[in-house]
Amino acid sequence: MVHYQFYLSLLLVLSITFISPRVSHKESLNIVNDMANEEMRDSENKYSILLPTYNELENLPIIIYLLTKYLDKSGYDYEIIVIDDGSPDGTLEAAKQLQNIYGKDKIILRPREKKLGLGTAYIHGIKHATGNFIIIMDADLSHHPKFISQFIEKQQSEDFDVVSGSRYIGSGGVFGWDFKRKLVSRGANFLTQLLLRPGASDLTGSFRLYKKDVLDKLIKSCVSKGYVFQMEMIIRARELNFTVGEVPITFVDRVYGESKLGGSEIVQFVRAMLYLFATT
Amino acid sequence: MTKLQEWLSGGGILFAIWFYLITSKDNNDFIRDNYELILYSPIIFIILFGLYAATIVLYRVYTFNDCEEAAVELQKEIVEAKEQLVKLGFKLQEKSK
């Protein structure tokens, strides 16, 4: 007797799989990138650091001091682009002072009227960036500029399209997190690794280096807002077949100001994860 | 194929195998002898996987690096930065609470 139930259910499953619409994102961009990069000599590389700020009056001078200290020492060509979203605490005035000290070629100010979100801040920054690589980091001192030279070395080692800082590998880690915060972080990370298999260990981290055209492409393919935007960027990178390298980083939770992890952040995260699970 | 479709097809194949096994106990001695185990195997599997997940997550929470040196180093560098910035002519402002 033929076990028709078995074949019937198998058929059912396969039809579900193939009937559902599929969106193909095959890109020939990689080839174009490779060609552009071969022409680019090492000495011609320039790194544009984007610093979106909102009420970072106390942190901004320190992060800029540290950036210039470590980058001058490493000898890479760089510029720092400060995108202040109309902070009421006078962050922009502090940035102007810093521009006078360090020079208009090193510190570039591209303020916006009001808070408009991270994605658009990056687009705004890229428009004015003269570097061929973009580095994104938080201005609140949780990301240390000393790691930037490791990002650059990593990128050059295998010509990665994206290099992502990770708190979850090797010598990476966090400071200032209690048990609950760690549990939420590790649990969320386990779940996303299981469901999305992103090929990168730190999805919500925001300390990353991108090739400029890759970042442009990624931002345009992203739909989410807020901090989950960082997760979508890495998932889209995998979807578009960009290569992602990783560097362990330490994350020192906000020295000044308050760190946020509330119910609404968790809801946002779960929604973004399910959305990406169903669509990518 | 999206991740959801991958999970549906993987789950569907396992379901098909399981469904075939529980509906053909009349033809096979092995299935008849182990019928209960096969019937409850999906639940057993989910419980075991839950235990595995909980163990992994807890292990990673306890081995999460507390970067105390990084925090100490940063505090020193904040002091250094403030001193150097004042020397460069920067007027430090404290945030008014």
Description:
The complex is a heterodimer of chains A (280) and B (97). By secondary structure, chain A is α/β, with parallel strands linked by helices. Helix content of chain A is 48%, strand content 15%. Chain A has a single domain (28-279), classed as Spore Coat Polysaccharide Biosynthesis Protein SpsA, Chain A (Alpha-Beta Complex), CATH 3.90.550.10. In chain A, helix 9 (228-239) runs parallel beside helix 10. Chain A is globular. Chain A starts with a helix and ends with a helix. Chain B is mostly helical and 97 residues long. Chain B has one domain (3-87). Chain B is 76% helix and 0% strand. Chain B contains 4 helices and no strands. The interface between A and B is large, with 57 and 47 residues.
Write the layout of secondary structure elements.
The complex is a heterodimer of chains A (about 280) and B (about 100).
Chain A (H helix, E strand, L loop, with lengths): L3 H16 L9 H11 L6 E8 L5 H16 L2 E8 L6 H12 L4 E3 L8 H11 L4 E4 L11 H11 L3 E5 L6 E3 L3 H18 L11 E4 H10 L6 H12 L4 E5 L1 E3 L10 H17 L1
Parallel strand pairs in A: 1-2, 1-4, 2-3, 5-8, 6-9
Antiparallel strand pairs in A: 4-7, 5-7
Chain B lengths: L2 H21 L5 H5 L1 H28 L5 H20 L10
Pfam families (chain A): Glycos_transf_2 (PF00535)
EC number (chain A): 2.4.1.83
Main location (chain A): endoplasmic reticulum
